[in-house]
Amino acid sequence: MSEKTGTQETMTLHKALAELKIIGDRVKSGINSTIYVVENRHSNTKLHGVSIADFTKNMQALSQSSDDLTKRRNALKRAVVLSNAITKVIIGDVEYTVAEAIDMKNSGIELKRLKLDKMRRQYDTAVERCNRENDALASKADNHITGIFNTKDIKNMTEDMIKVRDEFIKQHTMELVETLSVLEEIKALEKEIAVFVTEVDSVLSVSNAITQITINY
């Protein structure tokens, strides 16, 4: 349902956001200060030190002020939301709407960090385990040979001993199984996150400073 338009005002998005930060508190203060209904003894002709008629007018004025501020607040918010949905910015080499950039800053970038941290931990752990196991593999292979062939002389191994030893090492060598190209993905994510975090605030500030919005209420 459209509202009757009585006020039209153009301003920068920066100014609108600054006003939005305080106007909500002003509305709350006005509502909290307004007495909408109160009990009174029939014989009392005054409330809060003034006549009932003046008290009523004062409360009506306070209520109207809060309503007017609420309309302005809603008009500001509506204009900001609509502007953010269509205004484009470039961060790094990626185009976002302002709304998308704000969401990425507030939530999306943390999900990317979560993925990056998980990949780093898993990669480092897997590499460490592979190295540890593979470093000990030669000794395990020698023990395997001495057990199977019942000999401690591994310096003069027969062809059969060498074949069995090589097969043991082949079968027990630890290697990485990558479901993604992990190092490439880590590098790309690190770059994407660093660029976004470095640029987002300044890009949004510039956009807010030059973007004009018009409010109607």
Main attributes of the structure:
single chain, 217 residues, mainly alpha, 2 domains, two-stranded antiparallel ribbon, two-stranded antiparallel sheet, 6 helices, 10% strand, elongated
List the helices and strands and how they pair.
Blueprint: E1 8-12, H1 13-33, E2 46-47, E3 50-51, H2 52-86, E4 88-91, E5 94-97, H3 98-135, H4 137-149, H5 159-172, H6 182-210, E6 212-216
Antiparallel strand pairs: 1-6, 2-3, 4-5
Helix pairs in contact: 1-2, 3-6, 4-5
Overview of the structural elements:
The structure is a single chain. This protein has 217 residues and is mainly α. The chain folds into 2 domains: 8-95 and 211-216; 97-210. The protein has helices at residues 13-33, 52-86, 98-135, 137-149, 159-172, 182-210; strands spanning 8-12, 46-47, 50-51, 88-91, 94-97, 212-216. The strands form 3 sheets. The protein has a two-stranded antiparallel sheet. Strands 2-3 form a two-stranded antiparallel ribbon. A hairpin with a 2-residue loop joins β2 and β3. α1 runs antiparallel to α2, α3 (98-135) runs antiparallel to α6 and α4 packs across α5. The protein is elongated. It starts with 7 loop residues before the first strand and ends with a strand.
